[in-house]
């Protein structure tokens, strides 16, 4: 399924799921991971653009 074929609700759910997965990785990661931090910032901004408060999905 291409992103253009997704409904807004599907896009929101996929973005939430991805952000939650990144949060789980961060929790398990014991070292410094700049790429992970960058991805978290990117997806936090995507959630914000979709009107979803990222704080609700932070661990």
Explain what the structure shows:
By secondary structure, the chain is an all-alpha fold. It has two helices and no strands. It has helices at 8-28, 34-49. Helix 1 packs antiparallel against helix 2. The longest helix has 21 residues, at 8-28. The model has no long low-confidence stretch (mean pLDDT 90).
Looking at this protein, list some descriptive labels.
mainly alpha, elongated, single chain, 0% strand, 59 residues, 2 helices
Which helices and strands, and how do they pair?
Blueprint: H1 8-28, H2 34-49
Helix pairs in contact: 1-2
**H/E element order:** HH
Mean pLDDT: 90
Which structural class fits the helix and strand makeup? mainly alpha
Low-confidence stretches: none
- H/I helix tally: 2
- Sheet bearing the most strands, described? none
Gyration radius from CA atoms, angstroms: 12 Å
Percentage beta strand: under 5%
Give the strand tally: 0
Helix content: 55-70%
> What coarse outline follows from CA principal-axis ratios?
elongated
Separation of the first and last Cα atoms: 29 Å
């Amino acid at each position: 399924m291409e992103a253009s074929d997704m409904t807004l609700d599907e896009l929101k759910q996929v973005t939430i799921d991805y952000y939650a997965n990144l949060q789980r990785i961060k929790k398990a990661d014991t070292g410094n991971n700049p790429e992970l931090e960058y991805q978290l910032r990117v997806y936090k901004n995507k959630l914000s653009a979709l009107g979803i408060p990222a704080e609700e999905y932070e661990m």
